[in-house]
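Q: Okay, next protein. This is SPOR domain-containing protein from Candidatus Ignatzschineria merdigallinarum. I've checked the sequence twice, so it should be correct. Can you predict the 3D structure?
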Amino acid sequence: MVQLGQVQSKEKWRRVKNFIRYFRRPPTKAELLFYVIIVALAVAGAMFFADHAEKKAAEKEARRIARMERLAELERERNKPFSPEEIQIPESEFSFYEQLANRSFHITGEEAIGGTHYVEPKPKPKFELISESSGYESVDTEIKNEFALELLSTSESFQEPAPKPEKGPSKKLQTGSFSSTFEANIHKSQLESLGYQPEIQKAVVNGKTIYRVKIGPFSTKDLAQVKRHLDVQQIKFIEVKP
């Protein structure tokens, strides 16, 4: 009598043989086509994901390079030395009527002599000894010498009075009028670099706020010299009241 365990082991072994025999047999056309499609899909999927990952890596690298270039550009701009030629100062906003209202007239030819007239200094007094002869040459010589010494000491002690300081009206020069404090401060810095002490005055003309840059006041003598200096620096100006 055959035992139950032996029957079951034989059944298992038969199934294994059938399974091995199934895979060892040549595949049918349908199975071969199915396997080709599976492999093609796997290869296509792998290539798609690889290409996508490569594109993402390239985009990430491009963004990193662009960011580094922007930071380098900002650093160059921050460390760039200041150049006065790069400052574009707009033309002054003077109007014809403003110039007529603010200007003051001066004598023609005033700048040629510095604003003052040259006064010829008074000649020193000359002394001439005139005396009658006493008949004694030695006595006459002694008298002349004593009198000459007395006159000489008197003339040396004489001094002309110091000229009185000029009390003419002082004036200011307006060198610019701007629509913003930023432009006015740039022009002010330019004047300070030339040794002046400018000031900015706020004004409202026809409902519009402007910022006037002025220097001074100057005496009549100094005013002509400042005008010549501003002309050399090609800075426009008009005279205004202090």
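A: Here is a summary of the prediction. The chain has two domains: 1-80, 96-115+168-240. Residues 90 and 178 are 8 Å apart (CA to CA).
Q: Noted. On to the next one.
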